[in-house]
Design brief:
six-stranded antiparallel β-sheet; alpha+beta; 5 helices; 282 residues; 14 strands; globular; single chain
């Protein structure tokens, strides 16, 4: 059931808040997310679609998958936006908390996360280049609140859309490298794809995502079919406000500044799915 549209904090319960001014905080959060997920990247069982390195939206923030510890237990990490900290909790009952609002650089946060993980029984090399940075971190509580509200709104829409797609849809997850929230639907068409001189047979897919940029103008929702059959897609009409994007990446884009509420994003997701999914089936 849709929440009532009562005003809360300057926007109603189904509207998306402005992300203007989010840039400096976004840069910091992205580095912190890379630091936290470096543990899963190095130590969690590898998923063929890389789902093991992603973060999931929770009522508190963003959480990792379970990471095996050397002592026979598991560890989970969370970016808690209500308490402004990265928290790590082990299955042995121990926990660690590292502030996100203390000005720690990306490298500084990474070393704190790795030290806590070592106490939990997770040791070994990680790729420190993913969170390397010496600039002091920026954590604007208001910008964080608006960002978290936006990804919660997006997750709600994606979950509603995903429920109609059945078992062929993947999880809704935030990718730390791009700092975008996305999900995938897999078709029955199979395509060859070259990676590191190897030819792979991969299922066709259609993703649905939300890219929260530095501000409203740099933020957007997207839905990208792969393979992208431009001759069959580019002349198809998209819902109001959406456009086909072909520079850098190919797919449908709905600018964040053009979005008023969740229903508009859901209509975008459904319309692009109806247009693209038949092309991704055998």
């Amino acid at each position: 059931m849709r929440c009532a549209s009562e005003d809360q904090g300057g926007y109603n319960l189904t509207q998306f808040p402005s992300l203007d001014g989010f840039g400096p905080t976004r840069h910091t959060l992205r580095l912190y997310a890379q630091a936290l997920t470096s543990l899963a990247r190095a130590h969690a069982p590898a998923h063929p679609h890389w789902w093991h390195i992603s973060l999931k939206v929770t009522p508190l923030g963003l959480v990792t998958s379970n990471i095996p510890c050397g002592n026979g237990g598991i560890l989970v990490g969370q970016m808690d936006f209500h308490r402004a900290c990265i928290s790590l909790a082990g299955s042995d009952g121990r926990s660690w908390s590292i502030p996100m609002d203390a000005g720690l650089s990306g490298s500084g946060m990474g070393e704190r996360v790795l030290a806590a993980a070592a106490e939990a029984g997770i040791t070994g090399e990680v790729d420190r280049s993913r969170f390397a940075g010496d600039e002091p971190g920026v954590y604007d509580p208001d910008a964080v609140r608006r960002f978290f509200t936006a990804i919660v709104r997006a997750q709600r829409v994606f979950a509603h859309h995903r429920a109609k797609l059945g078992i062929d849809a993947g999880p809704i997850q935030l990718w730390p490298h791009g700092f975008d929230l996305a999900m995938e639907w897999f078709g029955t068409r199979v395509e060859s794809y070259k990676e590191n001189s190897k030819t792979l047979e991969l299922p066709a897919q259609l993703n649905l995502g939300f890219y929260p940029g530095d501000d409203d103008a740099g933020s957007y929702f997207y839905s990208s079919p792969w393979p992208f059959d431009s001759d069959k897609l580019l002349d198809r009409e998209l819902p109001a406000g959406a456009v086909w994007h072909t520079e850098g990446w190919q797919g449908a884009m709905l600018p964040y500044a053009a979005v008023d509420n969740e229903d508009q994003v859901l209509d975008f997701a459904r319309d692009v799915f109806d247009i693209a999914s038949p092309l991704l089936m055998k």
